[in-house]
Design brief:
Layout lengths: L4 E7 L9 E2 L11 E6 L9 E9 L3 E8 L3 H11 L5 E12 L3 E13 L9 E5 L6 E3 L22 H11 L2 H11 L3 H6 L3 H23 L23 H11 L7 H11 L50 H9 L1 E3 L4 E7 L28 E7 L2 E10 H6 L5 H22 L27 E5 L2 H9 L9 H17 L9 E4 L1 H8 L13 H8 L4 E3 L7 E3 L5 E9 L4 E4 L7 E7 L4 E14 L5 E7 L5
Helix pairs in contact: 5-6, 6-7, 8-10, 11-12, 12-13
Amino acid sequence: MKPDFIGWATKNNLKCADGRTIMKDAFIENDGTSVPLVWHHQYGDPANVLGHALLKNCDDGVRAYGYFNDTDSGKLAKQLVQHKDITQLSIYANQLVHANGRNVIHGTIKEVSLVPAGANPGAMITDVIMHGEDTIYLGEDEGILTTNEFIDTDLSHADDPDDEKDKKDESEPEDKKKKSSKEDEKTLNDIYESMNEEQKTLVNYVAGSILEQAAKKEEGDKDKMKHNAFENSGHSDNFLIHADDQAAILARAKQNSCGSFKSALAEYMEEKNALMHDDDPEPYVAPAGGFAQTGNGNITNLFPEYKEVRPGAPELITDDQGWIGKVMEGVHKSPISRIRTSAVDIRNMEGAMDALRAKGYKKGHKKELSGNFRLLRRTTDPQTVYVRNAIHRDDIVDITDFDYVQYLYNIDRMMLNEEIATAIMIGDGREDGEDKIYPDKIRPIWLDDELYTIHRDLDIAGTTEELQGTDTRANFGTNFIYAEAMVNAVLYAREKYKGTGQPSMYITPHMVNVMLLARDRNGRRIYGNVNELAASFNVKEIITAEQFAGKTRATEDNKTKSLIALIVNLQDYHVGATKGGEITHFTQFDIDFNQEKSLIETRISGALTRVYSAIAIEEDITEQG
């Protein structure tokens, strides 16, 4: 019966994808044998067995004569081969023996597979036989061994001496071919068994020395093989002999119980489990009398341990923390927690304070007394703010890479600082409840009374009309309009500002980018950097706070205002804490639950102590009904 295709199961002296090289006669014991023809080394499903392959050992490698069965999968595979959709072959082999590092000198082929891409550059289908016709479609020129791509050619195999030899072998009866092969050359085992005891001792000594040198050579780089010798797709099994294995075999050979290197190798290979890649669907199950798979299917046990890129404590992913440090450092700290602010308003507001004005005297008339003062006073009481946590002692003992206790304390302290800074600037934000930091204890600057915080809206419509008139959007872009509206709102609000010194601006990152991207009608940017932007607002510095984004408040007249920026000198904001109320860390060990408990708390109050000492820039986003 003619084969359906002819190809090379493997070619000698070609470096495979995993770095191994198959040497001549490495699989001579497979000469004349028949092995299953499988799809992509998938052993678990009988439907993946496509037929069988007859193997012939040649000088250049192992030839494969493939015969497809009449199953649906076999017929489909036959069509793929005939149409040249599949051109590559791969083998599964075990009982590998290496020499000079990664040269394979002995092994046993258990099956041949059709694969989309193989590891051995020369392992491919060279001839496709179309039954019922005399035409033979030729594949790759067998003299070109540098690529595994399928190359069409018009060369006739009759011009190739090796092909003539192969065709002659195909025409011979099967028994005659096997007999001729056996007579022409002996196997390694036949040669070894023909030696006397003295010669065997010498061979064992030489082989042991070679393996010992190879083990020393590979010990430095600990080259753990992660792939089999012939398939780079990761879907086949293999016995692997590493440097550690070689040392173990050599040590076993030196024991009196083994007596020789050959017996030590045989014992080791019998006890050694086969290794399977993790993505193999099913373990390999051999037919009766064949190879038995005993591995656990987890080749990742051979992989090196993972190495931490940044050893020690894990990196923290947090929201913007820069402005929080500025707030905690910038506020005025007082040793008094119950604070009271008093002020007398002597401004002449719409003539209301005319009575306080100095008066001219006219002779003969009575001098009038000045009017009463307007006293402004408010008090602020403290509230306790805390972060509580518990750490299991088992975790403290088991985690040795870094100080777990200090790591969690740093996180707790960071969260406490962020909560206090947020309460100072924009408020707690939670609904009323036990966990809320109340705004009458730590008074938020944004939500403070108009007497202390000046609230100004961006006048986008007015700025647009001023810049562009009726020719809307023909001259300036939206970014420029927003930038000009911001400058107008801030500078006009500064006319009423009564805070200490030069304030800082805390603003959303988006609005900073909007203003930096503002361009004039010639396409040039208005502000080259943040410092130029700060100078236009007449503020000390601009500090971005991403936590401000999306924050809104409802006014008494049922409008919704979105926060854009806060302008304040935090020296005008007093944070008070009496002795014992400062930020303190408490720890206690719970012997019942084997936990180290942690508590960080402070008892503080906070409020602006100067009238008109802060400015809040907002945008009216009330939905128009």
